């Protein structure tokens, strides 16, 4: 596992992931999509100014809460497209 992960502080990260998912969702007939993320290292997030700002803006106490935010945000996006 590597410490280099998607930056949870940048909206461009979410736009990128949504664009990728838009491309691949039609390729898979399943109702469910597993996005992973449960073992994400927090090293970069704890050091990243953009991630620290996201935590402050969203009133998240730590990087673990930022991880929950990240997964929830992508999950909500997927749910809006009938994928769970």
Your description of this structure?
The chain has helices at residues 11-24, 43-47, 49-57, 63-79. It is an all-alpha fold. The longest helix is centred in the C-terminal third of the chain and has 17 residues, at 63-79. It is elongated and about 40 Å long. The model has no long low-confidence stretch (mean pLDDT 91).
Strand and helix map with partners:
Blueprint lengths: L10 H14 L18 H5 L1 H9 L5 H17 L5
String of helices and strands: HHHH
Strand percentage: under 5%
Category from helices, strands and their pairing: mainly alpha
User: Helix content range of the residues, please?
Assistant: 40-55%
Number of strands: 0
Low-pLDDT residue spans: none
Oligomer: single chain
Ends apart, CA distance between termini: 26 Å
Integer average pLDDT? 91
> What is the CA-atom radius of gyration, in angstroms?
13 Å
The major pleated sheet works out as: none
The coarse overall form would be elongated
Brief summary:
The chain is 54% helix and 0% strand. With 84 residues, it is mostly helical. It starts with 10 loop residues before the first helix and ends in a 5-residue tail after the last helix.
List its salient traits.
4 helices, 84 residues, mainly alpha
């Amino acid at each position: 596992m590597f410490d280099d992960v998607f930056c949870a502080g940048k909206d461009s990260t979410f736009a990128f992931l949504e664009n990728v998912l838009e491309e691949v969702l039609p390729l898979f007939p399943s109702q469910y999509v597993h996005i992973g993320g449960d073992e994400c290292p927090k090293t970069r997030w704890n050091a990243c100014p953009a991630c620290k700002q996201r935590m402050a803006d969203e009133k998240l106490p730590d990087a673990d809460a930022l991880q929950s935010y990240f997964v929830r945000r992508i999950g909500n996006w997927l749910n809006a497209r009938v994928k769970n």
